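Subject: sequence -> structure tokens, single chain

Hey, anyone have a minute? Need the predicted structure for the following. Not urgent.
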Amino acid sequence: MLPKLIKYILSENPQSQETEVSGWVRTKREMKNLIFVEINDGSCFAGIQCTFDRSAGIDKQTEDSLSSLTTGASVKIKGKLIPSPASGQSVEIAASSLLVLGQAPAENISGKNPALDIQAYPLQKKRHSLEFLREIAHLRPRTNTFSAVARIRSRMAYAIHRYFKENDFFYLHTPIITAGDCEGAGAMFQVTTLEPSGEIDYSKDFFGKKTYLTVSGQLEAETYATAISRVYTFGPTFRAENSNTVRHLAEFWMVEPEVAFAELEDDMALAEDFLKYIFSSVLEECADELKFFDSHVEKGIIENLKGVAEAKFSHITYTDAVKELEKASAGNKNLFEFKPGWGCDLQSEHEKFLTEKIAGGPVIVTDYPKEIKAFYMKLNDDGKTVRAMDVLVPRLGEIIGGSQREDNLEKLSGRIVETGMKTEDYSWYLDLRRYGTVPHAGFGLGFERLIQYVTGMANIRDVIPYPRAVGQAGF
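Reply:
Had a minute. Here:
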């Protein structure tokens, strides 16, 4: 039987029943004949206090273990669950025995074999900088901040799957290795078994052609949406952008629903409903974690999430949005670092201004110029814009990007050529328009961006277990 988790022990009615708890030592302090050991197993924020009373008698093995006990050591403690006289906790364990499972020495230990030397446990009872913790990504989950991020990430992933199941979507596993570029941007990691030397004959490579790590599962998802109506992908994607910022990762997770017989308006409604569901779920299921982030990371997160979850999303066209930005910047030349104008790609500062100053809440911007959007987006009748939409939220800016897909064979083929790609590379994709084409739409949401928004964590590398970025592929 699996050991009982601390989050359940803390909610039990104390009746001096025998109990056993396992975890890692957070603190140890002594007061006369009493020794207080707080341990945590990561199942919740709170640890449980275990009190050893020397006056009641402690066996030699337990006494020896207590004398050498340090922060970070893993232990198993037995005792009786009793009401706690201390403030801030309802129960504690009147401990009778302690077994140290793994030491975490507070000082360096060297021996005859340098390979077996042990450095002092780096996580002591003090606040560590996030920069330092990134250097020990394998140990940072033991801190309050990163265990809370991990719990929120897990609950949000579950809520995403639950939402799509409740709305009759099928979960689709799209390939990680692909021969096509969904976004047409070219920032892709190549997959090969050949040694790079001179002219490479890719017909001799493992797959017989150039292949890459995927930037999106969208195109493959469209093939299944046009067969079973509603699908979604939720998996890793990759971008080889040489961007060393707090907003970019080389490997991240994407949520991508795709719906047949749907147009842009349906896509917008789906995105709004989806976000509200996820935010409502995390508010309900991760209250303790959100209080922590609201108190220690960024004030106002809870109210912000409640505001989005309860808001009616505004709608504005790209053209009208640019007019509003130009009007605002006309009276203040220093308002924006990047000057807004029709045809520009909206920057984060523009998106935040639209949500916080123009719309006063979440807003969906639609009908972008075709030149700044992907080839697969459906052309509007004006021939200049596409039926695209970006969902913008206060404090962050863009959180979802999507579109109605081009379902006209001739127009889609023309856009592929226009953007400098080869139609033969997308012949399978064009087949969806040759045989039983239908209106369809979908969107993409970066999971790490979503977690950043919920937690207030400033650096995207702090919301994924092992960040992959420029020059960073350790652990």
